[in-house]
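@channel anyone free to eyeball this complex?
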Amino acid sequence: MPTSPSEPPERSGPFDLAVVGAGPAGLAAAVEAARRGLRVVLLDAGDRPGGQYHRHPAPELGARRPGALHHDWREFTRRTAALDGLVRAGRVVHLPGHHVWTVVPEGTGRRLHAVAGPDEAAASVRARAVLLATGSHERQLPFPGWTLPGVVGAGGAQAMLKGGLVLPGRRVVVAGSGPLLLAVAGSLAAAGARVPAVVEAGTYLGYSGFAPALLRNPAKLAEGALHGGALLRYGTRLLTRHAVVGAHGSARVEAVTTVRLGPDWRPLPGTGRRIPCDALAVGHGLVPQLELATTLGCATRTAADGTAALVLDAEQSTSVPGVWAAGEAGGIGGARLAVVEGTLAAASVARALLGGGAPGPRETALRRRRDRLRAFAEAMGGVHRPGPGWTGWLRPDTEVCRCEEVPAARVTEAVDVLGARDARTVKLLTRAGMGWCQGRVCGPAVAALAGHASGEGAVPDRRPLSCPVPLRHLAELPEPPAD
Amino acid sequence: MSKSQSPDAVIIGAGVVGAACAYYAGRAGLSVAVVDRGPVAGGTTGAGEGNLLVSDKEPGPELDLALLSVRLWRDLAALLPADVEYEAKGGLVVAPDPTALKALRAFAEGQRAAGVEAAEVPGDGLRALEPHLAGGLAGGFHYPQDSQVQPARAAARLLAASGAAVHLGEEVTGILRTPSGAVRGVRTARRDLTAPAVVNAAGTWGGAVAALAGTELPVRPRRGFVLVTEPLPRVVRHKVYAADYVADVASGSAALQSSAVVEGTPAGPVLIGATRERVGFDRSPSTEALRRLAAQAAALFPVLTDVRALRAYHGFRPYLPDHLPAIGPDPRVPGLLHACGHEGAGIGLAPATGLLIAAALTGEPAGGVDPAPFRPERFDDAPDTGRRENTP
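replying in thread with the prediction:
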């Protein structure tokens, strides 16, 4: 039954493969799958392919060198050109601006329902196999003052720069934890901001323990050296084992306070230092976006960085038959790994649907590359995993959930007095995580306060709606055949 | 393994029914321990809407229990912190056409005789109560006794106020018995809690606890979905539902039934619940359940059509074949009491259940409600229809 009457039937399927997300993993997967002869639909919430990583200025901004802020830009443009060719040839249907809100079984395959475009139209497609390349969002650990204007996510600052060529401020402190911070600081400095300090809660010394993994990834090493070198040139101070524990200002951030951290990230008394700034870009790495996957029932694991990630086998299959995943959903690992995984997942889907022999030499080489990059990502994730002592920089009145304005004291009351033992019960008792972002921002923090050390492995609840859906869409779903 | 405490009773289950049993037992002077394998309100309580309804119940034992509970909730609301969000908002049951209105009128007549307050509202008077209600409805009945709490907080606050020793995250792995077969406590991974009485308030999982004690209680899950909208200004003032909801609640069918109960909450979102279907503990999403809820809510309140649903969740109501809970001592296992199987009315029926259990524990007569219809052993001589339907 065509559910979007305005669209020709071939646009609603049935497809062989539905790829959710057009970031590095989904884009690579869609191209590879189509080249292998599958009929592919690529659904993406964004207006243009690239996801959060290859975010680029809208054409109207007239950027002369949109790739200047990106690694692998050439590879990315080659791949989008390939996608365009496949779309023109009718082998891929690309549906930008489509937020997939649920995936349900239908016949031998699945139906994906989406909210489409600025008018929030209803759309749905059917496919024999599903590949989740849903990416990640930034991990935020709250601190006093984090809701002040001028405090932005580190990834958000990067996105602002890439997507709109806008700087969050003139004097920007970059803080949090993870390899992204150096890249963000480098981009900001290159774009003309002054970056007085990069405040990293972990320590890069931790990398040396993984020298073998690093040495097997010379590209990563070069990337790091590049960032480090550039920052030295700009006179940026690198503070490791430090955290921003306060943002100050009346209408907008005017300064931040940093402290030194103990090994478990507990703030050390008497080490506070004030750094004037007009913006703070802060983030503690990335969290896989798993709403669709967990609602489908896909099994998860706790990755080395403490986040919940999908359990995937060598074929990039999830624990649910017919559902594959690639990129950050299987554990934070960066764009290069995402591309490799997307390619491998597509190859595996093609084998499952079309038959065919064992993986050829190219695939075997890609698998080795994936395993190397995955090992590296896990090693790095362990280095930047939040220590349980971070909750020591919260004050009772620090807002933990910004959507519902829930302070830390209410969360601790729910745990200590009312008998909550997990993030779900804290949510029921305090409303933390019930607002617009549905816990994407406060989830790790709430889980940590609920007793999970550093909020690890907090698996998102099964959520039949992975994004807001107009009631009219639900009401107008096709009725099941009477039988 | 520590083995120190010897309370007068151990209650298994930290949902709203367990909390109410703990509260009233404590008030009766008993020392109580509450054990749950999860957190407070971790089962069906946390998945409920917090309905305290008399309007949907026909005259009989459940309505008696509900009427007593509505009174008890009002008293509790005065004692518990305001964040339990008690609201005596009243219910409004609407009939789409004269035939349905006639049936509703007959139903309300019977309820009135049993002590329910119900006032007929003519079709043109409905908008005075609910300005955004759809036009063209034949009429309805206003039930001022229907009220509302935030269920998880109500359970948590009730439990905290009970003074019970609470052991969360401890699954009961065994019921301790004397050589003669009487209950003498429970065993968890961490401790033995010895007590002369054990109360099974494990809700949907009450059948498993009964089995641990060597007896039977045919509690089955009946799945329900609830739809939650984005925060809105107060567009819905009462609990509003169409008259056919009553038939759904009373139905024994395993198939999906739905008639949306629509209501606003103090935090802003409108709750739309709930479907009823017997599919075992199936946690997979059902777009059909969401479709029906959305369509029915939009039919009652057209203004909701373009509102966004932020989330949906589901729970498993504890269901017994005759739609009545099991409350009271189990004569088959001395020392064992049951307080489970309240289906979708656990929040509403919890206080009266707690009062009956406290009375049974102290040996005092229960005030006001006859406990006989809730005898846990009543299924021994009846064929268990629920089980057959749930076997794949």
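from a first look: The CA atoms of residues 134 and 300 of chain B lie 5 Å apart.
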